[in-house]
Amino acid sequence: MSNQAEFEQMAEDVKKSTVGDVNIDQPGMFDMKGKAKWNAWNSRKGMSKDDAMSAYITIAKGIISK
């Protein structure tokens, strides 16, 4: 996994662990960046906050050990 992908996944996990499931409407089709972020956050739907934080920690430890 690339560093960029790891950081994006970490951002998704932080959002999920702090806010929970998606609680806002999906951005419009012209907001590409917002839509990508929303889709990534929504991909964690149903995951517990604790599981999201554990996933974040696992990725962070992997980055630190590189």
UniProtKB/TrEMBL annotation:
GO terms for molecular function: fatty-acyl-CoA binding. GO terms for biological process: fatty acid metabolic process. Residues 1-66 form the ACB domain. Keywords: Lipid-binding. PROSITE patterns: ACB_2 (PS51228). This is ACB domain-containing protein. It comes from Pleuronectes platessa. The lineage of its organism: Eukaryota, Metazoa, Chordata, Craniata, Vertebrata.
